[in-house]
Amino acid sequence: MGKLVTEMLKGTLEGIVLAILGRRPAYGYEITAWLRDRGFSDIAEGTVYALLVRIEQRGLVDVRKVPSEKGPPRKVYSLNAQGREYLEEFWQTWSFLAERLEQLRKEGPQT
């Protein structure tokens, strides 16, 4: 099931990361650690950083640099108004799809 989960995550990881940022601002490593703590152990740190760059370019987050004790400043991401709108749309779409899939599963195979 690992490969299937990975493939399905590709389409939903953006929404998951935005949901995390909807709870509180965070930097890339924090997001990756949060995901891993909750069972998303196969997500590479680079995947999260690339996604953060994309959502920043699309204007869904605000970014501020915070000094780090170990090295260069960290980029801390927080969800902005446009990101909250997008996240709401993500949850509506997720609910729509989940309801339809559950309905399909309950109907069972046609004979």
Task: Tell me briefly what this model is.
This protein is 65% helix and 13% strand. With 111 residues, the chain is of the alpha+beta class. Strand 2 and strand 3 (74-79) form a beta hairpin.
- Please report the total strand number as a whole number: 3
Q: What is the helix tally?
A: 4
What's the N-to-C terminus distance? Answer: 26 Å
Average pLDDT over all residues: 91
- Derived from helix and strand composition plus strand pairing, the structural class reads alpha+beta
Helix % is: 55-70%
> What is the N-to-C order of secondary-structure elements (H for helix, E for strand)?
HEHHEEH
Could you tell me the strand content as a percent range?
A: 5-15%
With strands numbered from the N-terminus, the spatial order across the biggest sheet is 1-3-2
Textual characterization of the structure:
- The chain is an alpha+beta fold and 111 residues long.
- The chain has helices at 2-23, 28-37, 45-57, 81-107; strands at 26-27, 61-66, 74-79.
- The chain has a three-stranded antiparallel β-sheet.
- Strand 2 (61-66) and strand 3 form a beta hairpin.
- Helix 1 packs antiparallel against helix 4 (81-107) and helix 2 (28-37) crosses helix 3.
Output the keywords.
alpha+beta; 111 residues; single chain; three-stranded antiparallel β-sheet; elongated; 4 helices
Helices and strands in order, then pairings?
Layout: H1 2-23, E1 26-27, H2 28-37, H3 45-57, E2 61-66, E3 74-79, H4 81-107
Antiparallel strand pairs: 1-3, 2-3
